[in-house]
């Protein structure tokens, strides 16, 4: 506990005569990760099924594999790592359950990262890295705006003075972002909320699990500055 936090704590105790908030915050630490994993898995599968019914999926992977890819989006570094994890998981299932697993598993013996990427985008799970244009050939935001206007790849390429193949690569990401936005990002957001400790993409679980006193005294610090 640093000096400033200690002072704030003392002010709180002197004002209220109690350390109840601090105690309650301490008790609640870690609740973000105290979840029913079976219920989470079921809800993820329900979301996948709802999206399959609403949108055209671009791969022949089953719902169970899509659900695993959704989880992998938040657990693995990239699509290659997701593909590797899925194959290893299948191999582990086969070792534990025998030949029966071979007929039940939807994960192919070899799963290409490009297929994982296609499935991930079907689920509106865009990574920030997907939006990083190679060699800064153009601004992703500009392409997204042109795509929203209904411009073709060729028209976008002309407007951006860029290679059509490069434009096509990122136009797909733009279309996914736009489709997600039209759905109020509800699928993306629910996957994120179910499968991470972060309320906002890119934040870290440790932020939510910081010392409870710091969160409890945030408003008090504002008053103190006044």
UniProtKB/TrEMBL annotation:
It comes from the Archaea. Residues 1-12, 21-37, 198-212 have a biased composition (Basic and acidic residues). Residues 1-37, 87-108, 198-226 are annotated as: Disordered. Residues 90-105, 216-226 have a biased composition (Acidic residues). This is Conditioned medium-induced protein 4. The lineage of its organism: Archaea, Methanobacteriati, Methanobacteriota, Stenosarchaea group, Halobacteria.
């Amino acid at each position: 506990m640093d000096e400033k936090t200690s002072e704030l704590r003392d002010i709180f105790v002197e004002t209220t005569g109690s350390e109840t908030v601090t105690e309650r915050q301490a008790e609640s630490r870690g609740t973000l990760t105290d979840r029913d994993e079976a219920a989470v898995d079921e809800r993820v599968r329900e979301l996948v099924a709802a999206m399959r019914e609403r949108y055209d999926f671009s791969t022949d992977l089953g719902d169970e594999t899509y659900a695993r890819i959704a989880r992998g989006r938040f657990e693995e570094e990239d699509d290659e790592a997701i593909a590797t994890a899925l194959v290893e998981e299948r191999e582990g299932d086969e070792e534990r359950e025998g030949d029966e697993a071979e007929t039940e598993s939807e994960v192919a013996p070899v799963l290409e990262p490009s297929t994982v990427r296609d499935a991930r985008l079907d689920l509106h799970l865009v990574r920030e890295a997907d939006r990083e244009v190679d060699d800064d050939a153009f601004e992703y935001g500009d392409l997204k705006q042109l795509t929203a206007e209904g411009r073709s790849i060729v028209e976008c390429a002309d407007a951006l003075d860029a290679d059509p193949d490069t434009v096509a690569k990122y136009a797909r990401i733009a279309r996914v972002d736009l489709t997600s936005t039209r759905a109020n990002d509800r699928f993306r957001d629910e996957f994120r909320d179910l499968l991470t400790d972060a309320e906002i993409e890119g934040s870290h679980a440790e932020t939510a699990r910081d010392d409870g006193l710091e969160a409890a005294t945030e408003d008090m610090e504002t008053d103190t500055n006044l």
